[in-house]
TrEMBL record:
SUPFAM superfamilies: UDP-Glycosyltransferase/glycogen phosphorylase. It holds the Pfam family Phosphorylase. InterPro entries: Glycg_phsphrylas (IPR011833), Glyco_trans_35 (IPR000811), Pyridoxal_P_attach_site (IPR035090). Allosteric enzyme that catalyzes the rate-limiting step in glycogen catabolism, the phosphorolytic cleavage of glycogen to produce glucose-1-phosphate, and plays a central role in maintaining cellular and organismal glucose homeostasis. Phosphorylase is an important allosteric enzyme in carbohydrate metabolism. Enzymes from different sources differ in their regulatory mechanisms and in their natural substrates. However, all known phosphorylases share catalytic and structural properties. Keywords: Carbohydrate metabolism, Glycogen metabolism, Glycosyltransferase, Pyridoxal phosphate, Transferase. It comes from Geotalea uraniireducens (strain Rf4) (Geobacter uraniireducens). Its EC number is 2.4.1.1. PROSITE patterns: PHOSPHORYLASE. This is Alpha-1,4 glucan phosphorylase. The modification N6-(pyridoxal phosphate)lysine is found at residue 679. It catalyses: [(1->4)-alpha-D-glucosyl](n) + phosphate = [(1->4)-alpha-D-glucosyl](n-1) + alpha-D-glucose 1-phosphate. It is an enzyme of class 2 (transferase). GO terms for molecular function: glycogen phosphorylase activity; pyridoxal phosphate binding. GO terms for biological process: glycogen catabolic process.
Length: 829
């Protein structure tokens, strides 16, 4: 009897931690509410309820997570697996709760459980503050890759920084962007687990000492000026279907001694905690991109800090499993997500040579085998370089190592290109023109066995422009891996209506084999299916209309064409070209009030770097135009403009499913890939775009007839620049363009203030670096074709279905498989 009781108690406990029926989940939820949050339902806030549910879901991840750790050990002992380490200064995972419910396969059960208890699951999901630990595309890509690594069963660690404050929250006041500190940790983070025992020490500053060791070999000792500690915080990343659960390991900086008793004893209380404050500053805040990096000592320290913690952690794990540092490259591959972690090349050399007594040549072989480097931008101003002096102050030993790598490398260069000192100067890791800099992209190209761009066009441009000399030197290192996005978050989770419609006709295999969407093609002309497709889009638009109303006060018509541009604000992305189109439509309607136009709702979203004045002025322009257009009685019911504040992963999930038209209108040759373009298309939006980044491949896949193409091509841009581009000519010869510009310039959208937008207008008239004027008329013409096409709803729906059906290539599962085959040489287990 007693035994029986024990069994059933055990059962009960097990169900509380693992059961997946609605009853089990409801029971577990109440248990967590009581024991983890210290509340009962009548006392609970919405956050208490969210936390209790998050713990309930986390419990259900635990078994898989632990199993994964054990698996590592077993396979490692057999020395059969290589672990992928994705080193990235940014991750944008988005809210975890909904995604984990989806991947665990307990979404419906949990909804029922919450209903039983009188709660609304969507409201609890909405309570989560997302970890905004990235700026945009690059950080989000890292998170899509983590999802895919787990889903296709590749053991992996994501290594990064646990910023206390992530990307700022954006508010719009009087049309201007206002930045608010992102306090994502304020209400607690139920998804992370701190592991203080696994902390790592990181040295900073000081000097080096060269000496002879017992065997007469010359060695180097780094005597740092200070040491900080990195504490890992682990977040489980479960794959779809729960196959494996990888780890996102983010480092937080702390003082080694958080309290100096000597200081305290002499009564200097503040000095006693100063060390702690200084150390913790390192992981306080994410740097917004698009700001000049030079001189940002703290940024270099951040980069070094997380890289050093991560590499030491990898060596520690290897040691624990009985692997010597000499076989590091057989156990690991590490991908550098842009140059931000590229100091890893010098740090691994230092760890191997100075701390683990590996010979330089062997260490160099290990280092090159280990690392791959992904480039994400062609913008020259975004390529990181550090003044040699600053670099040496913080990382004196690394500067010596960089010099030694460079010395050996330039010997190689001179052998390959005898007598060509200019080539050597261009390739050198040190920029010697003027003030001396360490070029981080060069360090990455030399120290990695593979270099890749993120779309076909981008990879070609890397080879022919930005990294031309390196391509000449090491052609075999260069690859392309076109980006992808996870269909779990970006379709199944964010667009459940569409997911259900699709799965209803072709099954749900597409969620992990996105190519299966092809099976939708036969339905593209089926009127009944088309009708359902339109209904889904209409309901999604309704939801977005509600969100827009709540967030901006602008009432929009869900039957209008939803024309959406959401992405970081940047001149090269040309949100202001979109604005010129809006003004052109506005001017047409004012002139011919009775003309028949397709009603449109223009939606914008995106953050501008706090120091990027022009991007912030473009936000103000969008809102100013919105203010006029939305309130003009002649325009009512035809055009609406809304700027959705604080665009992030969570908002994105509500935006992409509701779009009819996706704006991908960067000047050709500027956008490395884009991933928003993929998210829109997967959700049935048609694209208006230039031949830039991954647009090229999207168009190839969906068919030219299902894509609205306009604008200069890369070679035409170059040719025009070479000939001498003069924006004035376009202004003088195009009345519609002139009218749009003059309306802005006259103060029409700024209450008569003609000065407000003068910096923007002047820049366009004088330089127009991103050639808006050259692309203006082709863009307007193309938009007119869009409007005409939208009138034919049957054909539009057909195109929309075909877009989705042909998006298989843009799954991040495909991208990650290509990294596995081409770059990492690992097999899914
Ligand atoms: C972006 C690129 O601009 C974008 O085209 C690409 O799709 C994305 O990376 C992923 O590869 N770059 C960044 O987001 N860069 C930074 C520093 O945030």
């Amino acid at each position: 009897m007693e035994n029986q009781d024990e069994v059933s108690t055990g059962e009960k406990c097990r169900n509380i931690r693992t059961g997946s029926s609605p009853d089990d989940i409801a029971q577990a939820f109440l248990d967590n509410l009581y024991y983890a949050q210290g509340r009962i339902p009548v006392l609970a806030t919405r956050n208490d309820l969210y936390m209790a549910l998050a713990y309930t879901v986390r419990d259900r991840l635990a078994a898989r997570w632990v199993a994964q750790m054990q698996q590592f050990r077993r396979a490692e002992l057999k020395k059969s697996i290589k672990v992928v380490c994705y080193l990235s200064a940014e991750f944008l995972p988005g809210p975890h709760l909904g995604n984990n419910l989806l991947n665990l396969g307990i979404y419906d059960e949990t909804r029922q459980a919450m209903e039983q208890l009188g709660y609304n699951l969507e409201e609890l999901i909405d309570q989560e503050t997302e970890p905004g630990l990235g700026n945009g595309g690059l950080g989000r890509l890292a998170s899509c890759f983590m999802d895919s690594l787990s889903t296709i069963v590749v053991p992996a660690f994501g290594y990064g920084i646990r910023y206390e404050f992530g990307i700022f929250d954006q508010e719009i006041r009087d049309g201007w962007q206002v930045e608010i500190t992102d306090k994502w940790l304020k209400l607690g983070n139920p998804w992370e687990m701190p592991l203080p025992e696994l902390c790592q020490e990181v040295k900073l500053g000081g000097h080096t000492e060269h000496y002879q060791d017992g065997q007469g070999r010359s060695r180097v000792r780094w005597i740092p000026a200070g040491v900080v500690e990195g504490i890992p915080y682990d977040t489980p990343i479960l794959g779809y279907g729960g196959n494996i659960c990888n780890t996102l390991r983010l480092w937080k900086a702390e003082a080694v001694e958080s309290f100096d008793f000597q200081d305290f004893n002499v009564g200097n209380y503040y000095a006693a905690v100063e060390e702690k404050v200084k150390s913790e500053t390192i992981t306080k805040v994410l740097y917004p991109n698009d700001e000049p990096e030079i001189g940002k000592m703290l940024r270099l320290i951040q980069e070094y800090f997380f890289v050093s913690c991560s590499l030491q952690d990898m060596i520690r794990i290897g040691k624990m499993l009985g692997n010597s540092p000499e076989c590091f490259d057989q156990r690991y591959v590490a991908q550098l997500n842009d140059t931000h972690p590229s100091i890893a090349v010098a740090e691994l050399m230092r760890l191997l040579v100075d701390e683990h007594d590996v010979a330089w040549e062997k260490a160099w072989e290990i280092t090159q085998n280990t690392f791959g480097y992904t480039n994400h931008t062609l913008l020259p101003e975004a390529l990181e370089k550090w003044p040699v002096e600053l670099f040496g102050q913080i990382l004196p030993r690394h500067l010596e190592i960089v010099y030694e790598i460079n010395r050996r490398f330039l010997d190689q260069v001179r052998l390959a290109f005898p007598g060509d000192e200019e080539q050597a100067a261009r390739l050198s890791l040190i920029d010697e023109s003027g003030c001396r800099y360490v070029r981080m992209a060069h360090l990455a190209c030399v120290g990695c066995h593979a270099v890749n761009g993120v779309a076909k066009l981008h990879s070609e441009l890397l080879k022919s422009e930005v990294l031309r000399d390196f391509h000449e030197m090491f052609p075999e290192k260069f690859h392309n891996v076109t980006n992808g996005v996870t269909p779990r978050r970006w379709m199944a989770l964010s667009n459940p209506r569409l997911a259900a419609l699709i799965s209803g006709v072709i099954g749900d295999g597409w969620i992990t084999q996105l190519d299966e969407l092809r099976k939708l093609e036969p339905f593209a002309d089926d009127p009944a299916f088309q009708e359902k497709w339109r209904r889904v889009k209409r309901e999604n638009k309704n939801d977005l209309a509600t969100l827009i109303l709540n967030r901006t006060g602008v009432a929009v018509d869900p039957d209008s064409l939803f024309d959406i541009q959401v992405k970081r604000l940047h001149e090269y992305k040309r949100q202001h070209l979109n604005v010129l189109h809006i003004i052109t439509l506005y001017a047409r309607l004012k002139r011919y009030p009775a003309s028949d136009c397709v009603p449109r709702t223009f939606v914008f979203g995106g953050k501008a770097a706090p120091g990027y004045a022009m991007a912030k002025l473009i936000i103000k322009l969008i809102n100013s135009v919105a203010g006029v257009v939305n309130t003009d009685p002649d325009i009512r019911g035809r055009l609406n403009v809304a700027f959705l504040p604080d665009f992030n992963v969570k908002t994105g999930q509500q935006v992409y499913p509701a779009a009819d038209l996706s704006e991908q209108i960067s000047l050709a040759g500027e956008e490395a890939s884009g991933t928003g373009n993929m998210k829109f298309s997967m959700n049935g939006a048609l694209t208006i775009g230039t031949l830039d980044g991954a647009n090229v491949e999207i168009r190839e896949e969906v068919g030219a007839e299902n894509f609205f193409l306009f604008g200069l091509k890369v070679d035409e841009v170059e040719e025009l620049k070479a000939r001498g581009y003069d924006p004035r000519k376009y202004y003088d010869s195009n009345p519609a363009l002139r009218e749009a510009i003059d309306l802005i310039r006259s103060g029409h959208f700024s209450g008569g203030n003609a000065q407000l937008f003068a910096p923007l207008v002047d820049l366009l008239m004088q330089r127009d670096n991103y050639m808006l004027f050259a692309d203006y008329q082709p863009y307007i013409d193309c938009q007119d074709r869009v409007s005409a096409a939208f009138r034919d709803q049957q054909n539009w729906t057909r195109m929309s279905i075909l877009n989705v059906a042909r998006m298989g290539k843009f799954s991040s599962d495909r991208a990650v498989r290509e990294y596995c085959d081409m770059i990492w040489k690992v097999q899914p287990v």
